[in-house]
Design a protein that fits this description.
The chain has 383 residues and is an all-alpha fold. It is built from 16 helices and no strands. The chain starts with a helix and ends in a 10-residue tail after the last helix.
Length: 383
């Protein structure tokens, strides 16, 4: 199959949109907390509701995408994902917010699997790795979403107006780019006769899932708590606090755009070990300093450290013999989302019992664990 440039850029646009939407949510975590008058534990449970919705979506994502194609599911779930932003501070109460976030998590997870399946198909039919670059677009979208959010807040735009604007623009981008995606995954000898049904991963997929979970716990902590950490623990105004997410996403984007070349040069063992150690050191810096600018440097280091963990593991999960790419990605994503789902809630509960600073040391612990577990990856797979 010959994949044209327009199809590749459509996939990049989808990853960018996903990052932009998620960053907008991240910027407004303090807004949601203040609007509903909830504490860290209640916020953690709200994030848990989103994680539960994501887990439900992941159990069906492979089947839905196999039946309807990544293009259709990306268009549907991506547009709903964007539209739900407009309801974040429009719900009548906390219980309604939990319901909205559960749906938010469901469509997010299916959208994520759909665009990663598309990227895996493009990589299979290309001469060079593409997955890290695609995830770089997600990080670039995150940087743009966080930076623009900070800018509009500084300019005095209301939170609801900002959410409505982002929702409208992202619906247009997702809908337009979906028309250029592949109509269906191409059949390959690797996936002929493969089963679309969800199964808990075993063997190689289980190992990939556990490692992905370690990375996603750390990412989720930064996405959901970095802005609040800067604002609450270091006393930064929200417009400055939003730069924590931007610094993390910008550094992650830069590292991911160079990630495909690194994947071609180094083994997964070396990359994962180095990633974990760098992330642990950078997060320790964040938590030990009381200088906001130095904390921003630390968040950037965490972004570099975790930049290529998920692209490597998702790319590998899409190439497991006898497993449909969407099913392999969904299975590994399900395990990863267990951490992504539980991590924010655990941090919220720990923050309530001690402090947010103490709770975020969980990121350091899991980064070290990721580095220690790197030897379980397949060192011969350089793709």
């Amino acid at each position: 199959m010959v994949v044209n440039t327009g199809t590749r850029w459509a996939s990049r646009a989808q990853f960018f949109s996903s990052g932009f939407i998620f960053a907008t949510w991240g910027v407004h975590v303090p807004t949601v907390k203040a609007h509903y008058g909830i504490d860290e534990a209640q916020l953690g449970l709200a994030l848990l509701a989103a994680g539960a919705g994501a887990m439900f979506g992941l159990t069906s994502a492979g089947r839905w995408i196999g039946r309807h194609s990544p293009r259709r599911m990306a268009a549907l779930c991506g547009c709903v994902y964007a539209l739900l932003l407009a309801g974040l501070i429009a719900m009548p109460g906390y219980v309604a917010l939990l319901g909205l976030l559960a749906v938010f998590g469901l469509v997010t997870s299916v959208f994520d699997v759909a665009i990663n399946t598309e990227a895996a198909q493009l990589e299979l039919h290309s001469d060079t790795p593409l997955m890290s670059g695609m995830h770089g677009m997600f990080s670039l979208g995150g940087m743009a979403g966080a930076a623009s959010g900070s800018a509009v807040l500084a300019a005095g735009m209301g939170a609801q107006a900002h959410l409505l604007l982002v929702a409208a623009v992202m619906v247009l981008v997702v809908a337009a780019s979906s028309t250029r995606m592949l109509p269906k995954p191409a059949a390959t000898s690797n996936t002929a006769g493969a089963d679309h049904s969800f199964r808990l991963p075993r063997g190689a997929l289980a190992v990939l899932g556990v490692l992905a979970a370690l990375g996603r716990i750390a990412e989720g902590a930064i996405y959901d708590w970095s802005v609040l950490y800067m604002q609450q623990e270091l006393g930064s105004p929200q417009k400055q606090a939003a730069l924590a997410y931007a610094a993390f996403s910008a550094a992650m984007a830069a590292a991911r755009f160079g990630g495909d070349a690194m994947r071609a040069r180094f083994t997964p063992i070396a990359l994962l070990r180095g990633s974990g150690l760098l992330a642990a050191a950078a997060m320790t810096l964040v938590l030990l300093t009381d200088l906001p600018w130095l904390a921003l440097v630390g968040f950037a280091g965490v972004g570099i450290g975790f930049a290529n963990v998920v692209p490597i593991l998702f790319g590998a999960s899409a190439r497991v013999p006898g497993v449909e790419p969407a099913t392999g990605i969904a299975a590994v994503s399900a395990v990863a989302h267990l951490g992504f789902m539980a991590g924010p809630a655990v941090i919220g509960l720990l923050a309530r019992a001690s402090s947010l600073t103490a709770a975020l040391y969980v990121v350091v612990v899991f980064a070290v664990a990721l580095a220690a577990s790197a030897r379980f990856t397949n060192g011969s797979d350089r793709a």
